[in-house]
Amino acid sequence: MTTRRQFINHTSNALLGLATFSTISLLNKKLIADPSQDNTIATLEKRIPVLMSQKLVPGVAITIINNGQLYWTRSFGVKNYKTKQPIDNNTIFAAASLTKPLFAYTVLKLCEQGQLHLNSPLTEYTSTPYIKDSRIKQINTRMVLSHTTGFPNWSGNAPVWIERTPGTKFGYSGEGYLYLQKVVEQITGQPLDIYIKNNFLQPWGMKNSSLTWESEFETLATYGHDRAGNPKMMSKPTKAISAGSLRTTATDYAQFLMAMMNPGTLESPYLTQPSIEEMLYPQIKITQSLDWGLGWGIEHTPNGNCFWHWGDVGTFKSFTVASPSLKTGIVILTNSENGLKISEEIVRLAIGGQHPAFRFSMIRY
């Protein structure tokens, strides 16, 4: 087992050695956290390796969006603590629940096309009910995307069940997403990974992203790491899971954030402005400062509402947050069970402000 002192010493040396690796400054525009963009970037490049050493995080990839465009992307650390292979901007991470907003976006596009309706019971699209409980007839797309189906988060190997009356209370549920995935695959006649890749990922230029494992990922993927810094191989999904199987890079996922900020036409692979507004409209209140929209968490800040999500699959943790009004945002992907311990400070340094999303009850640090 790696000791904390060993991890800090080795990781600090590795990070110092990688101090000039994998940096792209893409636009000469100012960040909102500091009137001097150069000072903000310099602060991030100095502070992030310190945070990684303190919290035992071997690798991090970050992309910042400003004015609705890619601004800066940077990779720190290593893919595998033992081999010390460096992370770069093409390194693949397990994005976990960052998959959910992407799936929600896909669903809203089907709604725009008239193939699906937010308020119609999902039983209208299936030949047989998903479960025997008669309340299944109440569950619609809006409930799934706002986590108000009444399903548990996960049912394990048991058939899913309804815990509470659908539409009445927030209850985060991956099971709801799996139900809606079955409906979407029936409507489109395609496996979800193929449909999303052809209609969204490829048109957006997300060339290093997929909901299932691809052969190219063998050399690009990072290992995950437990709290002690021990490397754990990334799982390789053979079937898409709408709730969490996305494999991606920080730069690729930022393309999706930009899609949220830059609406398109009905004929394009982008949602129209009314559909974006529908996604980001609060559907259910969680706390005084947090609501849930369709696929996204919504946080209330002094600078206006931001949409956000986190990802947690144990040895990979991730976080993203963006302001639709300011058109700023950040993607943070980590290869560590400790990853969320450094995310809040990175967000504050990069885009400024206080973010109540980090107080969400399900986030495990």
Describe the structure.
By secondary structure, this protein is α+β, with helices and mostly antiparallel strands. Among the domains are: 1-61 and 69-93 and 221-228 and 307-319 and 335-365, no CATH class; 103-188, no CATH class. Helix content is 32%, strand content 17%. The chain contains ten helices and 13 strands. It has a nine-stranded antiparallel sheet, sandwiched between helices. Residues 16-35 have low confidence and may be disordered. Residues 47-339 form the Beta-lactamase-related domain. It comes from Gloeothece citriformis (strain PCC 7424). InterPro entries: AmpC-like, Beta-lactam-related, Beta-lactam/transpept-like. This is Beta-lactamase.
Quick description:
The chain has 365 residues and is an alpha+beta fold. Helices cover 32% and strands 17% of the residues.
Oligomer: single chain
Order of helices and strands: HEHEEEHHHHHEEEHHEEEEEEH
Beta-strand level of the residues, as a percent range? Answer: 15-25%
Strand arrangement, major sheet: 1-3-2-13-12-11-10-9-8
Rg on CA atoms, Å: 20 Å
Give a quick account of the main beta sheet: strands, pairing sense, barrel closure. 9 strands, antiparallel
Could you give the topology of this structure?
Blueprint: H1 4-17, E1 23-25, H2 37-55, E2 59-66, E3 69-77, E4 93-94, H3 99-112, H4 141-145, H5 174-188, H6 192-204, H7 217-220, E5 224-225, E6 231-232, E7 247-248, H8 250-261, H9 273-279, E8 284-285, E9 290-292, E10 297-301, E11 304-312, E12 317-323, E13 328-334, H10 340-351
Antiparallel strand pairs: 1-3, 2-3, 2-13, 4-7, 5-6, 8-9, 9-10, 10-11, 11-12, 12-13
Pfam families: Beta-lactamase
Domain Beta-lactamase-related: 47-339
InterPro entries: AmpC-like (IPR050491), Beta-lactam-related (IPR001466), Beta-lactam/transpept-like (IPR012338)
